[in-house]
Amino acid sequence: MYALVEDNNITKLINNPKSIVIGDVNYPAKIFSIWSMSELNAIGIYEVIIDSSNKKDDKWYINTNESYAFADNQVTRSWGTAIPKAHADTLYTEQDKTDDLIPEGKDVGDVAVKGLKTILIEQLKQQVAGELSKTDWYIIRNTEKSTAIPSAISTHRDAVRTKQAEMETQITNASNTPALETLYTYTEQEDGSVTRPLGELPTLES
Prior knowledge:
Blueprint: E1 2-6, E2 9-14, E3 20-22, E4 25-27, H1 31-34, H2 37-42, E5 45-50, E6 61-62, E7 67-71, E8 74-78, E9 83-84, E10 90-91, H3 94-98, E11 111-113, H4 116-133, H5 136-145, H6 151-173, H7 177-184, E12 187-188, E13 194-195
Parallel strand pairs: 5-8
Antiparallel strand pairs: 1-2, 1-5, 3-4, 6-9, 7-8, 10-11, 12-13
Helix pairs in contact: 4-6
């Protein structure tokens, strides 16, 4: 990304190299690939430097106050302090009822906005359903034909549900958003393996 700076002010952001008019001169797009940075700077074009020191993972945080600044012959893109996304559900309140903000079918105490815990547990349930669906046909065959379910399949399905319960408990017990992020963060162990505190659902391959 580039920025056009005129009279010490950023007047245009350039996401993709293209022809550009500066003053009375129409410069072709190829200047971005063949000119040196000092030559681009001479006509007011600067490469944008990313300062991501305050930027955090969008899955867990709301990044705020994105801004561009020109100082010391450099254009910098930066963010303000990131705000953790709510880990708990937001519920409708009596004030919401007074202000007529509760939709039909909902009431005080019902979920207005899902928090990260609810979202993550819903995602986990979908993953569990996907894993169990691989062996559902054994259950259907047993129901329709009374064909015995292999013990390995029953053991696997039980292990999936057991691990699901453990993971849901870990998510539910997380005290805040950073704690949730930690559960999902992979780190390399001494044996070279890469794991996360939340663990993984068992698969047939494992």
